[in-house]
Amino acid sequence: MSIEVKVPQLPESVTDATVVAWNKQPGDMVERDENLVDLETDKVVLEVPAPVSGILKEILVSDDTTVTSGEILAIIEESATGSSPSSSEDKASTEPAKSTSDDSDVKTSPAVRRMLEEHGLNASDITSSSKDGRITKTDVQAYIDGGAKKAAPAAKPAAKTSTPVFSGGREERRVPMTRLRKMIAKRMVESKTEAAILTSFNEVDLTEVMALRAKYKEKFVKDHGVKLGFMSFFVKAATEALKKFPVVNASVEDNDIIYHDYCDVGVAISTPRGLMVPVLRNVEHMSFADVESGIVDYATQAREGSIGLDALQGGTFTVTNGGTFGSLLSTPIINPPQSAILGMHNIVKRPMVVGDEILARPMMYIALSYDHRIIDGRDAVLFLVTIKDLLEDPARLMLNI
């Protein structure tokens, strides 16, 4: 019996998707729930699993095609086991073609599989650095850098390639934007044109936070299985400040201000595909360990391309850390429909007056970009001061005072 493979139901905020790469070709045997094709949306890459076991009879949509929910992608001729309905001699002749059978049990994301295919590698040859055995792009790159690259298979036309342009003897490259990059560009322009954005700054002495981390970092890892980073301090401090100044946690809808009685904090994560902002839900009820674990899990998923759409939707406030790349100061752009974003920056030792002494202290500039349509300068400044006070005396975060 012929079974249709359709584009899965897309969330309300996603209208269509683009076919990135087929992982099977007509005539290939497929197993139920095996990934047939990767679809790229404005936010993530989705896998489309086989609804039944059988033979992939026909592919109806080629790479780089835009598709919508419910659209038919392919036809599978169903069979009980997924094996070819041909004779036993035919079955034997097809078995050697499964050269990557050892890869079937190796956990990989769509982005990793594309990287493996591009370099002609088998996942089973690569050592995973993850606890769950998942192969990451970092693992693949480490394998490539080690010189263990295998002979590449016959080249397959790439869906999106750069076009060399020669000008006066110098070469330039024209590369189409990915859907994610186009969406980032659109949202950033919307943010600048629709909101009255203003940025306020302050600086934080992180002496006490660094001392606390140094004192408890080993026990924290032992008890919780995750490192104690700076992000959990800033996310928790921002959450306390949001509770004190709820308008910073609000959003604008037409002529109304929508106040949220919860703190869903987005954490900006840089990935090879662009910036993603997964959301930690109800941070007001989370511990430091919950925050750190959530960030690590999201970062891994985002960089592997396996993060779900639900993780990227919603959010009432965002924290971004340009300091990881060495940024000393910046004016972050609001992630609409949110009304504010907190920017962290590089920690630099600077001479500060402490009492009557000049001491070298680990200082960080922090920035709050906010929508001046609903947030007054007073609230924005006091919001930053609250974060500063909590971080310079982190015991207050633990005691909720």
How would the blueprint of this fold be written?
Blueprint lengths: L1 E5 L10 E6 L6 E2 L4 E6 L4 E5 L4 E6 L6 E2 L4 E7 L9 H7 L15 H10 L17 H9 L17 E5 L2 E5 L4 H16 L2 E9 L1 H18 L5 H15 L6 E3 L2 E3 L6 E3 L1 E3 L2 E3 L2 E2 L7 H17 L12 E5 L18 E5 L3 E7 L2 E15 L5 H16 L2 H5 L2
Parallel strand pairs: 14-18, 18-19
Antiparallel strand pairs: 1-8, 2-4, 2-7, 3-6, 4-5, 6-8, 9-10, 11-21, 12-13, 14-17, 15-16, 19-21, 20-21
List keywords for this structure.
7-stranded mixed beta sheet; 3 domains; 21 strands; Dihydrolipoamide Transferase; 401 residues; 4-stranded antiparallel beta sheet; single chain; globular; OB fold (Dihydrolipoamide Acetyltransferase, E2P); alpha+beta; Chloramphenicol Acetyltransferase
Describe what you observe in this structure.
The chain is α+β, with helices and mostly antiparallel strands. The protein has 3 domains: 2-98, RNA polymerase II/Efflux pump adaptor protein, barrel-sandwich hybrid domain (OB fold (Dihydrolipoamide Acetyltransferase, E2P), Beta Barrel); 104-159, Irregular (Dihydrolipoamide Transferase); 180-399, Chloramphenicol acetyltransferase-like domain (Chloramphenicol Acetyltransferase, 2-Layer Sandwich). Helices cover 28% and strands 27% of the residues. It contains 9 helices and 21 strands. It has helices at residues 88-94, 110-119, 137-145, 179-194, 207-224, 230-244, 288-304, 377-392, 395-399, and strands spanning 2-6, 17-22, 29-30, 35-40, 45-49, 54-59, 66-67, 72-78, 163-167, 170-174, 197-205, 251-253, 256-258, 265-267, 269-271, 274-276, 279-280, 317-321, 340-344, 348-354, 357-371. Strands 11, 14, 17, 18, 19, 20 and 21 form a 7-stranded mixed beta sheet that branches. Strands 1-8-6-3 form a 4-stranded antiparallel beta sheet, with no helix packed on it. A 4-stranded antiparallel beta sheet has the order 5-4-2-7, with helices on one face. A hairpin with a 4-residue loop joins strand 4 and strand 5. Helix 6 packs across helix 7 (288-304) and helix 6 (230-244) packs across helix 8 (377-392). It starts with a strand and ends with a helix. 31% of the residues are buried. Residues 82-102 and 148-159 have low confidence and may be disordered.
